Batch of 3 targets.
Target 1
Amino acid sequence: MKEILRKAAERFDKNKCKVCPVCNGAVCGGLLPGMGGIGSGASFQNNIKALADKKLAMKVLHNANNPNCELEIFGRKISFPFMIAPIGDVTMNVGGHLTITQYTSIIIKACVELGTFASIGDLPKVEPFESAVNTIQGRGKNVIPFIKTWLDDEFMKKLEITAKAGCDICGSDVDSAGLPGLRNCPTPVTLWDGKKLSEMVKKVHSFGMKYIIKGIMSVKDAEIAAGAGADAIVVSNHGGRVLDYTPGSAEVLPSIAEAVGKDLIVMADGGVRTGADVLKMLALGAKLVLICRPAAIAAHGDEENGLQKYFTIIKNDLLHCMRMTNCSDLQSVNKNILC
């Protein structure tokens, strides 16, 4: 992994991501476009702190020697309860080593071979999004494209492209209206109220797709998403990139999971770096965890091989932590494994 990080650092624009040994947002506040957090970077750093503040309760007098971390979700089985989070314009955010089409092709191949979901991020124009989606090539059941909250015509064009590719799950990062780079697009990203969200859920469902709403940081918004008929939410502050001084996602996850966990699938991201972090998110109420910056760095460092190595490390760490907290499977994971 050290060699993979070294290669990624050579390929990245240092003004967009410094590939720090510890990816915690401490030195990249305000680097937007880039991989930093908005403003002071406090929201990015709060994601890291919120997970670090959670402690695992070690339990060793048991026989959970060989934990199973397979997960059944969205009607299929995946090898472990985490996946790569969507990134839109990787060229704008990290530099020009990979185009969005090249990056998407890499992550789809790696994630399919690993047995988890891949995701596709959105871009301001239809053509590059379509080019990225075209890399799916018959693997639509393994890929979740995320479409931003554009005006209706733009959204529907991308939804039709997603459906044509054979995907049966898609999502929207509804907090993307806070991204500075999207404020002045010819087709602006907008905020949706509950009525508009219900309308868009119906449109997505009319294509036979399940719909994930990403960017939920309050019980109220979670309840609105559930009431609108969404199939899943992602508790996320967009990596601390859309609003300064928000809490870390792990801070708000338990109350949100408690409020709507019986109505829809609760997912989460934000500051996840290790298998222990994945386990903490699961214990706090998430069913599936998304990992962004480190996975993107690994993919840029050594393409499919880099991402596969990183995810294998995370999986092995997760299994170790499950074994040392008496979790024989994911059904055994709950808040009682936290101190």
Note: The mean pLDDT is 95.
Target 2
Amino acid sequence: MKFGIIGAGMIGHFHAKAITAMTGGSLHSVFDLRQEAAEKLAGEYGAKAYSDMAEFLADPELEIVTVGTPSGAHLEPSLAALNAGKHVICEKPLEITTDRIDMLIAAAETNGKTIAAVLNRRFHPGMDAFKKAADEGRFGTLTSASAYVKWYRDQAYYDSAAWRGTWALDGGGALMNQSIHTVDALLYLAGPVKAVQANAACLAHERIEVEDIVVAIVEFENGARGVIECSTCTWSKDGHPARVQLSGTDGSVFLADESFEIWDFRDEKPEDAGIKSTLMKGQEAGLGANDPSAINFYQHQRNFEEVVNAINEGREPSTSSAEARKPVALIQAIYESARNGGKRVEL
């Protein structure tokens, strides 16, 4: 399947690497309003360069596009691509409100095309093992499910682009931008949320509209309780890993980025020994914790392959628009609670 990339910035380079490495896809073209940027990225991979969106989408060979524009600017290019008869894979968040996501879902249905999200932190062996354990009910009664993203971004990061730290184009701060993958992982593993109570603040940055720390108390539909804590003002030398922790009456698993700090079940299974010998936590730095460029592209590769396989098989991908809507709905509820003094908000 021939891919086109919308956006030739840092994320566009990740997409190009993943597309080049993947099975079932090849990089065909690159669009960016900055012709020089489009030509630079396209030139590295032998692709076509465009700075006119209409021309880019009119290419009959183009089948699927990836969108890597700022978070609050996903709607317009994604709609244009869907209406031009192209499939779309859009970076996180799919859009910054559920209303906008619903517009994309409707456009995909109207045009008979697939729109999927980049939820790349679902695609690694640790998450595969974690999800299997959750689906098999190995935790017994799930009692605790929490997510922690204690990262750091310096002031220069927010000053580097006018859209950073704005509600209009970032859609939020530490929660919506840096932590949505971990929030998605929590929902993926623990199931839907019933209600939240939250508090947010900007403690360590200037000239931004959004939070750099937020803490939410979460009640899940299955009865479990938990905490979501996200920040971009928690410095460490190497960076803290993003953590997802589930515990129940029969077991506990603590995931830190792509490996486990705890893998402990009352009833052990044969595969547990292999998990403990290959997927336990060492002393790795947190992926993307202090440096947003320090992220592996192989998860994007697996994500893209899953979407292509789903299209070819005539099914919804595991990172469908419906799945991508869930963390955004939860994040909206957390922001609503924080704006209203921690008032309980039901989803």
Note: The mean pLDDT is 95.
Target 3
Amino acid sequence: MPTPTSTTNPTLQIGPHTVQPPVVLAPMAGITNAPFRTLCREFSGGKGLFVSEMITTRALVERNDKTMQLITFDASEKPRSLQLYGVDPATVGKAVRMIVEEDLADHIDLNFGCPVPKVTRKGGGSALPYKRNLLRAILREAVAGAGDLPVTMKMRKGIDDDHLTYLDAGRIAVEEGVRAIALHGRTTAQHYGGTADWEAIARLKEHVPEIPVLGNGDIWSAEDALRMVRETGCDGVVVGRGCLGRPWLFADLVAAFEGGTRPGAGDLGGRGTRPTLREVADIMVRHATLLGEWIGDESRGVIDFRKHVAWYLKGFAVGSEMRKRLAVTSSLEELRAGLDGLDLDQPWPTGADGPRGRTSGNNRVVLPDGWLKDPYDCAGVGEDAELDTSGG
């Protein structure tokens, strides 16, 4: 295990970009669009790094309308961080060159961590690092095409406990010029179940000391983030499910890493982290409003917001009928009226800071036929393996 690391005001350097404190919003399909990034960034005071949801390289190169909207950044987003998914090195290279030539982003992250079947069945996401030569080819194309833009990658431990890839993948990344690696301490087979293996994060940090290693998995609070850094020696943290329905978690993270005092309960005016239901309701309406403005249609924005309702209300005393009502609203007026019918003076509920989002595990991994026969042979992987739509 590494020597315990100081967590007071640490700095993460990704190419020319200084990220202080070293806190990163994980790309999440359908979640980390511009409105959600705006909320998280506001609570952090503009500190940290906020990554777009997954953008498929084929859809980007073909200028898919949905994809072109997903890559839009607010003028206040600095640096603009964009995550790409791709399986074909040539297509990845085209997408990266397009980003550079058209000044679409300041930082490119590559997705090798997604465990969902529609991605892994094509050899993408967390399945891809098993094919070492394919991984190397993609990284080489991306880094060459990126020029001065830093390229990073996010990955998992491997496909399952019998097919671990993260140490080999980490070494390949260093050799190909990747600037930082984020490791989710689970395998593809685990999906989001069980407990994240933080020891694997420590082993990766020891294995590739040349570049920053960020830890991901089971960070539900600022205390978890500090503990991960102390125990693993990682250079920063990537937070995903922990901020679902809790964009204010970034206020907590910034305060903790900077060694400051966290504001108390019900003090969101001071960027606190234990809001009352009234404050949560106000944030819910703002989130839905931002979505409507981004999409260009209030109703569609509120409909897109529906997926967030259960996360925001987790732990609060809200009856099942009211939850159902809020989950089918289609206007801001309807959403606000439903929220006003709740007991808004409820304090932040005990236990609501724990796990949220997907928690399924022990899933069968869906892979291309013969994928595990040879970790170096890339036969059968081509442009037809590229997803043609973005957002997961």
Note: The mean pLDDT is 91.
